Amino acid sequence: MSDTPSKLPEELPRNVPEASPPTIRLEEVHKTYDLGEVKVNALRGVSLEIRAGEFVAVMGASGSGKSTLMNILGCLDKPTRGRYFLDGQDVSALTKNDLAKIRSHKIGFVFQQFNLLARTSALENVELPTIYAGVPVAERDHLAKAALEQVGLADRAGHFPSQLSGGQQQRVAIARALVNGPSILLADEPTGNLDSRTSVEIMEILQKLNEAKGLTVVMVTHEPDIAQYAKRAMEFRDGRMRRDVLVQNRQIAAEVLPTLPSVDEDGVEALGKDASA
Fold first, then answer.
1. Taking a C-beta distance cutoff of 8 angstroms, is the pair 7, 228 a contact?
2. Which tens digits make up the pLDDT trace of 23-73?
3. Which percentage of the chain shows pLDDT scores above 70?
4. What domains are there in the chain, each with its CATH number?
5. In what order do the strands lie in the sheet with 240-246?
6. Strand partners for 138
């Protein structure tokens, strides 16, 4: 599959309310990794703005800089040069402890590999961020159950990851990202390990969180069809942002799902209600 978002237009104005301040703003951000005698310029002067309530897809081939960008947006790494403002605060030079506090309360992370603890139930996996955030014990169970409810897995709270499908594991991972009530969700290839139908189911959850909850979603993907579920797409190449456009003919997951084959408990595909006559 091509790494180029070929379905996207060459250029369109961004339909973003200019009156609202950006929740994310990068100013000429550079990131250089010193590997002994070799220096790798992962980001080369990236400037961008993302406003509250946007759903942005970040695209690019391997080595384009998109993963480095996500690490900086998630306060997991710092720019070598340039400034990063999060909700108006310059976080570029904050201490590790300060960055950890921001991650705990403002940012939720979803990864391709799910990263669930194998010997821990779905509910306990979701509770983990509340422990690190210092949430009182009495509130943890309530928050975790509410997060599982948001992703449709309230009835799987006691199941271990090995008892869940890949799509269900990713739902647990999303619930874990939501449990502390973040304003930003960073998703790194969230459908990379999933089949086509399950990928659209995950996109449905992200779209609902974005629309109904106002959650700002930034998603890395190399798949043009998955980028079509976002509202806006940025394409990176060689550490620079090459395009920043609105997504045309945006896909709505709730409308796409009825046209896709469903999968029964034995893993056998069956046509959805509206798939074909």
1. yes
2. 999 999 999 999 888 899 999 999 999 999 999 999 999 889 999 999 999
3. 87
4. 52-78+96-263 (3.40.50.300)
5. 107-111, 184-188, 216-220, 55-59, 232-237, 240-246
6. none
